[in-house]
Write a structure and sequence with these properties.
about 625 residues; Rossmann fold; Beta-Lactamase; 4 domains; seven-stranded mixed sheet; five-stranded antiparallel sheet; 18 helices; elongated
């Protein structure tokens, strides 16, 4: 694992072994960012700490799974690509298919369903609704069950439909509460299902495969494996549409470029594996009888293309075929004679030693390029092969001797050797030029490799940037949601404050609200009129420290009793108002209760003043 974070790799293996989530084929930079996001959320400091947290909190696996699967998608995403699909891909696809043949489309990595429904709209526009319902089979798969549930529901917000042309929006979507639902009669023609591109087999006989911004999350080795599955899934001439950050460098041997800018490719059929399907021989109507089989075997041996003879374990010749009789001057009457009585036993090669070796070692023994010269004939060359004939229990019952005439082959070799010597002379003359060309070629090759390396680095960087862009888009959507919630809460708080201010202003007594430390937290307008202090001057101040012409020290114990939950009767006190007039204060007390548990958070004091003339 050179260059990899050992601790992180061990964490991936732990996740795979404990829950079956295999992320080892994903790009490490992307994975680390998503794992670190969850680690920050749960407060884990390093990979080992997060591994321990997963062991203690199994529910975290679901949060991790949802964090890794960034379901960023949309209707008509990258509009130029869908324009080419509508104007070029679909028309070519329809022209190449018989009108009675179904059209099969697969959206791999469909997320919440926007892309397969986009393809449905384009196909309906091209075919018409009736033909679409009769011919099209649309499959949409993803590894995220939660996303598939949203796709099956097919309900979207007005923001999600902002890139759908108005006419298509009116035609294919219906108002549903606060959102819009894709038409139910068309929705049921899309078959949603879970499919793991790394583990599950592909859907077969596909005419168009949409997999946009899915491959970029995987390493190059996994990308090539998935592209091989896509190649098997597509029919010859089928189209593959991928994301704008996916250049398919590793898949060029499987697909031809249709539109490189929009990342649309086509399968030309050169990698079609149909040739691997061997035709099955037709079944015979009746079984051949033993006589027919015997005659067939004899005829096959007699007319074999090479010279053959059979010798039994007593070294007697029991069969010689026609090529052997013609080549070595043998007769049918030689059948049954001992091999050593025939010249062929030592001419053109010593057969008895070869037979002995084959019988002893129980393997085929060969003699190559055996020369044989006969009177009046040109020299001939043979490859002699002696094969032991073995019965059960490894018992040798004879040998088969085959003579392959390689005279023509030997002659060609000799001519080849002569031509090779002539070429060597020419080669020496060209050697200098070749060396110069080789030097130039090496320089060009080096330049080409540098360009390829730069291209791969740029491609990897582009894919990484696209991944980060989708992550940022997902984070931006989350932030927008939080901002909306915060705005609603702020509005609610402002309304509550306005309501509270209105209530306090409407009470025809001075109202003072203190917390448990007797610090002022509310002060109404009549209190300002009575004592001459504004609410912003007294809020946060200790009640007993205020100089308002009222003997506040006498209120310490009544307020304490209210905070402890005891009842406190009204209290009358003598004092003066802000103008120095003598007044009699009448104070009533009540506890300040919480919203849920009725805990006492402070005290409310209502004060009425009456002048003493």
């Amino acid at each position: 694992m050179s260059g990899l974070d050992v601790g992180f790799e061990q964490l991936l293996e732990y996740v795979r072994d404990s829950r079956g989530f295999d992320y080892t084929g994903y790009r490490r930079s992307t994975l680390m960012r998503r794992f670190e996001k969850r680690m920050q959320a749960v407060g884990a400091d390093d990979w080992e700490a997060y591994r321990t947290y997963l062991g203690d909190h199994p529910q975290e696996y679901d949060n991790l799974f949802n964090a890794i699967l960034i379901n960023v998608t949309g209707f008509f995403r990258d509009r130029e690509t869908w324009d080419v699909v509508a104007t070029d891909v679909i028309p070519r696809l329809l022209e190449s298919k018989d009108q009675r043949v179904p059209i099969r489309v697969w959206s791999a990595g469909c997320a919440s369903g926007e892309e397969p429904y986009t393809m449905v709209m384009l196909l309906v526009e091209a075919l018409g609704e009736d033909a679409f319902k009769q011919r099209v089979k649309m499959y949409a798969t993803d590894v995220d069950e939660e996303a598939l549930t949203q796709a099956r529901d097919a309900t979207y917000t007005s923001k999600q439909l902002e890139h759908v042309p108005p006419r298509l929006r009116e035609t294919y979507f219906q108002v549903n509460g606060n959102g819009f639902s894709f038409r139910k009669d068309l929705r049921r023609y899309v078959i949603f299902g879970r499919n793991d591109l790394l583990r599950d087999p592909p859907i077969s006989k596909i005419d168009a495969l949409i997999s946009r911004n899915t491959l970029m999350y995987f390493s190059s080795e996994i990308q090539e494996r998935i592209l091989s599955s896509f190649s098997l899934a597509l029919n010859r001439g089928g189209f593959l549409v991928v994301g704008r950050a996916e250049a398919l460098q590793s898949g060029r041997r499987l697909f031809n470029v249709f539109d490189v800018k929009r990342r649309i490719f086509v399968k030309d059929g050169s990698t079609d594996l149909a040739f691997l399907r061997m035709p099955q021989p037709p079944e015979r109507d009746t079984a051949d009888d033993d006589v027919e089989r015997g005659e067939l075997s004899e005829a096959a041996f007699e007319h074999a293309p090479i010279a053959q003879m059979i010798v039994d374990e007593q070294s007697d010749v029991i069969a010689i075929n026609q090529p052997a009789r013609s080549m070595f001057g043998l007769k049918l009457k030689d059948i049954g004679r001992p091999l050593q009585d025939l010249d062929i036993s030592y001419k053109p090669v010593e057969l008895r030693s070869l037979i002995g070796e084959a019988s002893e070692k129980l393997r085929v023994v060969s003699a190559k390029n055996v020369r044989w010269i006969t009177a009046g004939d040109d020299p001939r060359s043979f490859d002699v092969q002696v094969s032991p004939l073995i019965a059960p229990a490894d018992r040798v019952i004879g040998v088969s001797i085959a003579f392959a005439d390689v005279t023509s082959h030997r002659s060609l070799e000799e001519h080849l050797e002569t031509a090779r010597r002539e070429l060597e002379t020419a080669y020496e003359e060209l050697q200098s030029t070749v060396e110069e060309l080789a030097t130039t070629n090496e320089e060009l090759q080096s330049t080409n490799e540098e360009i390829e390396t730069t291209n791969e680095e740029l491609q990897s960087t582009n894919e990484e940037l696209e991944t980060m862009n989708e992550e940022l888009q997902s984070t931006n959507e989350e932030l927008e949601t939080m901002i909306d919630e915060l705005r609603e809460r702020t509005d609610e708080t402002m309304r509550a404050n306005a309501f509270l201010g209105s209530v306090l202003s409407g009470i025809q007594q001075a109202v003072v609200v203190v917390d448990r430390e007797l610090r002022v937290i509310a002060w109404n307008r009549l209190a300002t009129n009575l004592w001459g202090l504004r609410d912003d001057e007294v809020e946060g101040e200790h009640l007993l420290n205020l100089d308002i012409g009222m003997p506040l020290e006498s209120m310490r114990e009544p307020v304490r009793r209210v905070l402890s939950g005891d009842e406190q009767p009204d209290l009358e006190l003598a004092g003066h108002d802000r103008r120095g007039h003598a007044v009699t204060y009448s104070a009533a007390f009540a506890p300040l209760l919480g919203d849920l548990d009725n805990a006492i958070f402070g005290a409310i004091v209502l004060v009425a003043a009456e002048r003493m003339d």
